[in-house]
Amino acid sequence: MxxxxxxxxxxxxxxxxxxxxxRLFERICRxxxxxxxxxxLSLTRMxxxxxxRFAGQGCELVEYGSGESLKTxxxxxxxxxxxxxxxDISEIALRQSTRKLxxxxxxxxxxxxxxxxxxxxxxxxxxxxxxxxFPGSTIGNLDPEEAHAFLAMTRDQAGRMLVGVDLxxxxxxxxxxxxxxxxxxxxxxxxxxxxxxxxxxADFDLSQFSHYAFYNxxxxxxxxxxxxxxxxxxxxxxxxxxxxxxxxxxTENSYKYSAEGFRALxxxxxxxxxxxxxxxxxxxxxxxxxxx
Length: 292
Ligand code: AVJ
Prior knowledge:
Radius of gyration: 19 Å
Largest sheet: 7 strands, mixed
Oligomer: single chain
Strand order of the largest sheet: 3-2-1-4-5-12-11
Shape: globular
Number of strands: 12
Bound molecules: N,N,N-trimethyl-histidine
């Protein structure tokens, strides 16, 4: 309600991930245009020994926004952590991934924590030196001030952090990744309106909104919007919101950072950038940070 009342209407991207949204996101990760997941998987495979050495065998692995924990499997195999603490806003995704992981790794102690990491989260007591794992460029959803606050929070929780960050690149490549030819990203974006209809009792007509994503070079981010195709009024619970034709709801930012740019941000939060791994095509970066 607060976001829809702003002059530039906005909905935080964390609301994408209901059960249907989490499934759509998993489909995005397999799209030919969405290089992000493949690039990160490939760099993780390529450098897994060095990454595990940096994290430290037998550590406690805490993952924010774990989702289906795809890349984490590689890390768990190489690291043999004392415990794995996945944190996710979607309880269903968390339950499913915990079940699957405990089948693959029966020796692994898994402590799932359902939660929204845009607010401080209390972690169970540490069983071993902690490493925070934050892959997938989820940090790109936060604006630089929020990213700073998040890094400062993890800085107090763990001595080391592994964070996956999407690199700046050709705007055409970025554009294709967020405007896929199969329309899965569009469905993912529009699903947030279906969710509002269902959970808040609203009457968004999904055929009257369209997916719009572009690279904002000045801000260094992809922006996703839902654009109203007509002048219309929408009811959400007891509230009414007016839309002009062409007016949008801003649903996501996805910031892209150069290696140096991200290191500077991490330094401001008390981390020193110790390691940097990238894939062969230079699309994606994994930073190894240590608390100073
Ligand atoms: C999960 C935030 C990393 O920004 O690329 C994918 C979400 N949005 N396609 C991203 C997303 C549209 C994704 N993150």
